[in-house]
Amino acid sequence: DGPVGLIGGLTRLTLLSELKAHVLNRPVLVPELPEAAAVGAALLGGLACGAFSSGAEATASIRYPQRRIEPDRRLAAWYDRLYNEQYRPLYASLKEINQGFQNFKPE
Questions:
Q1: Contact (CB, 8 A) for 17 and 74
Q2: From its phi and psi, is residue 8 left (phi > 0), alpha (psi between -120 and 50) or beta?
Q3: Are 27 and 1 in contact (CB under 8 A)?
Q4: Which of 52, 57, 83, 102 is deepest in the core (most CB within 10 A)?
Q5: In this structure, what are the phi and psi dihedrals at residue 67, rounded to the nearest 5 degrees?
């Protein structure tokens, strides 16, 4: 089980990235690429004009640092216990109610 890559604007919130590492009990990799959407658009432009022959070649052309966040084993065990002892039984007990919401439509 290798590290999990995180993407998107919420990766700027270190606390949220740390929480994901603890909950998943796996290291997470956070790219230090603040304008990822612009970089992606530039790579697509490069594909469109023939600068790259494939998406793989385009993505291989960029380099950026990544921050690795390791899970705290104590917190990971706590979240695992919370999931198994609280969430799973709660989910099972609410399953029928949640299915009822699917049939609830405005008149």
A1: no
A2: left
A3: no
A4: 52
A5: -100, 130
Tokens describing residue 90? 């709660």
Long-range CB pairs of 63-67 (<8 Å, 24+ gap) are: 64/31, 64/32, 64/33, 65/31, 65/32, 66/29, 66/30, 66/31, 66/32, 67/29, 67/30, 67/32
Instruction: Please tell me the distance from the alpha carbon of residue 4 to that of residue 67, in angstroms, as a whole number.
Output: 12
- CA atoms of 100 and 61, how far apart (whole Å): 50
Q: Enter the pTM of the model.
A: 0.73
Closest CA to 4 of 67, 63, 73, 82: 67
Question: Which residues, listed in sequence order, are joined to residue 68 by a DSSP beta bridge?
Answer: 29
